Amino acid sequence: QLRLVESGGGLVRPGGSLTLSCAASGRTLNGYAIGWFRQAPGKEREGLSCISRTGEPLNRDAVKGRFTISRDIDKNTVYLQMNNLKLEDTAVYYCAAEWRTLGCTTYSGAYNNWGQGTQVTVST
Hints:
The protein is mainly β. Helix content is 0%, strand content 49%.
């Protein structure tokens, strides 16, 4: 059974950077598309970025140019590099996996394997 564990969250000042990791165990991520999502208090879960099984990224406009998704097949891990963080980026960040042949999606309903989340707080 595939298990996902996020790490790398923390407290950062506006304009700072963080790199989140999504480490998989139990199964290889080959064949899975991976997505990153976040949920702020009182708001719905929001899709941010995803990466296909072949490494093709897709980024939503809200994070385009600031966030970069990547995957390391050997480490069975997907990363989300976040730069120029803003106050409104404060949220719990989740990764999720979908068995998918082509492409990827930032629609959360497509995913059925989720991590437990990691808190990112952007504050002065």
